[in-house]
TrEMBL record:
Organism name: Pseudonocardia spirodelae
EC numbers: 1.2.4.4
Family matches, as Gene3D superfamilies: 3.40.50.970
Cofactor entry: thiamine diphosphate
Cross-referenced CDD domains: TPP_E1_PDC_ADC_BCADC
Pfam family for this entry, one: E1_dh
Residue stretches making up the Dehydrogenase E1 component domain: 30-296
Protein's name in the database: 2-oxoisovalerate dehydrogenase subunit alpha
PANTHER family per UniProt: 2-OXOISOVALERATE DEHYDROGENASE SUBUNIT ALPHA, MITOCHONDRIAL
Length: 343
C-alpha cells in the first residue's frame, strides 16, 4: 500500500490517518526500545537481546489489530510487540536480565511468555484458541513466529490442528530471511512460506512486512475471519532482520553488508513517516512529541533495569522439586557455606 519512499500505491485503500499516526508512534517507540535494549546489553544490564530492528512494523501491527479479549503469543524476538500491547518495557525485559520468570502478568495482559524454543508457542496458541472456541468466548489468538520455526514439527502440528478444528488463530510468520545463520533457501524449497497454508486447508497471504498500512489491512482481515468462526489464516510477512541474531552473533560470517544495505531503503518507520508528513498529518511539532514520548520510555527503561532489588541466592533451589533431592540439598548447603565466608 505504501512504496518504500512513502508514496501511496494507486488505488490502495489506506487505513485511517489517525490509525497510521498511532502506528507511527508505536514504531518510534519500538525502534527506540531496540536501541536502548542493545545499549543495556553492552552495559552488562541485560544478558542478551534479540533485536527486531527492521521488523518493527510486523510487531506493531500484530498488537494493533487485537482487542482486549484477544491473546498474543510472542517469540523471543517480539519484545516490541509485547510493549505495543501495553506491557511495561521493564517487565518485558526482566527475563533477559536473568530473572527466573517472564516479568509480567500473563493473564492480565493476555500475552503469553516469550518463547525461546522455536514453534513451541504455536501449539500453546492453538490450545488457547481452541479452548476459547469451545467456551464460546470472543477471543482471537495472534501467534508470532519466524521463518526458522516453519521448519519445526510443532509448526505443522499447530497449523494442522487449528485448521481441522477451525481454531480462531492467526499465524504471523515474520520471514526475516535467516534462522540465525541459515538462509531461507536452505530451510525450505517452497516459493513462498504462505503457500504452505494450502496443505492445511487454510488461506495463506504474503504481505510486505515493512509496510505498516498493508500489514494492518491483511491482519485485520485475518482477525475478522477468525473471530467470525471461519478458522485460521497463515500470514507471511516479507521483512528483514537488520541486526545480528543477538549480541552473541556475528552476522558478517554468513551475510554480506550489501544485502543489509539493500534493505535499509525499505525501512518501515521512514516509510510511514514520509506518507504522514506528505499528507499533512505529521508536522515538526507532532514528530518531536512522538520522539519525546519514545525518549521518556527509554529513560524509564534505563532506570527500571538499573534498579537492583533484593536477591536471595537460595531461590535457585526453591522451586526445582517439591521435595529437594539429596544432590540439590548438598548444592544448597555448599552455597550457604561459601556465602558465610564471603567478605
Amino acid at each position: 500500500m505504501l512504496e518504500p519512499d512513502g508514496t501511496a500505491v494507486p488505488g490502495a485503500e489506506l487505513p485511517a490517518p489517525a490509525r497510521l499516526l498511532e502506528g507511527y508512534r508505536a514504531l518510534v517507540r519500538a525502534r527506540r526500545l531496540n536501541e536502548q535494549a542493545g545499549a543495556l546489553v553492552r552495559q552488562g544490564r541485560l544478558a542478551v537481546y534479540p533485536s527486531s530492528r527492521g521488523q518493527e512494523a510486523c510487531q506493531v501491527a500484530a498488537a494493533m489489530v487485537l482487542s482486549g479479549a484477544d491473546w498474543l503469543f510472542p517469540t523471543y524476538r517480539d519484545t516490541a510487540a509485547i510493549v505495543a500491547r501495553g506491557v511495561d518495557p521493564v517487565e518485558v525485559l526482566t527475563m533477559l536480565r536473568g530473572d527466573r520468570h517472564c516479568g509480567y502478568d500473563v493473564a492480565a495482559h493476555r500475552v503469553a511468555p516469550q518463547a525461546t524454543p522455536l514453534a513451541t508457542q504455536l501449539l500453546h496458541a492453538v490450545g488457547v484458541a481452541h479452548a476459547a472456541r469451545l467456551k464460546d468466548e470472543p477471543t482471537v489468538v495472534m501467534a508470532l513466529c519466524g521463518d526458522g520455526a516453519t521448519s519445526e514439527g510443532d509448526f505443522h502440528e499447530a497449523l494442522n490442528f487449528a485448521a481441522v478444528f477451525r481454531a480462531p488463530v492467526v499465524f504471523l510468520v515474520q520471514n526475516n530471511k535467516y534462522a540465525i545463520s541459515v538462509p531461507l533457501h536452505r530451510q525450505s524449497a517452497a516459493a513462498r512460506l504462505a503457500d504452505k497454508a494450502v496443505g492445511y486447508g487454510m488461506p495463506g497471504v504474503r504481505v510486505d512486512g515493512n509496510d505498516l498500512a498493508a500489514l494492518l489491512s491483511v491482519l485485520d482481515d485475518a482477525v475478522d475471519r477468525a473471530g467470525a468462526g471461519e478458522g485460521p489464516t497463515l500470514v507471511e510477512a516479507d521483512t528483514y532482520r537488520m541486526e545480528a541474531h543477538t549480541n552473541a552473533d556475528d552476522a558478517g560470517r554468513y551475510r554480506d553488508e550489501s544485502e543489509v544495505a539493500s534493505w535499509a531503503g525499505r525501512d518501515p518507520l521512514r516509510r510511514v513517516r514520509a506518507w504522514l508528513t506528505g499528507a499533512g498529518h505529521l508536522d515538526a511539532a507532532a514528530e518531536q512529541a512522538v520522539a519525546d514520548d519514545a525518549e521518556a520510555m527509554a529513560a524509564a527503561l534505563r532506570t527500571g533495569i538499573a534498579a537492583e532489588g533484593p536477591v536471595d541466592p537460595e531461590e535457585l533451589f526453591a522451586h526445582v522439586y517439591a521435595h529437594p533431592t539429596p544432590q540439590l540439598r548438598e548444592q544448597r548447603d555448599l552455597l550457604r557455606a561459601e556465602l558465610e565466608v564471603t567478605p
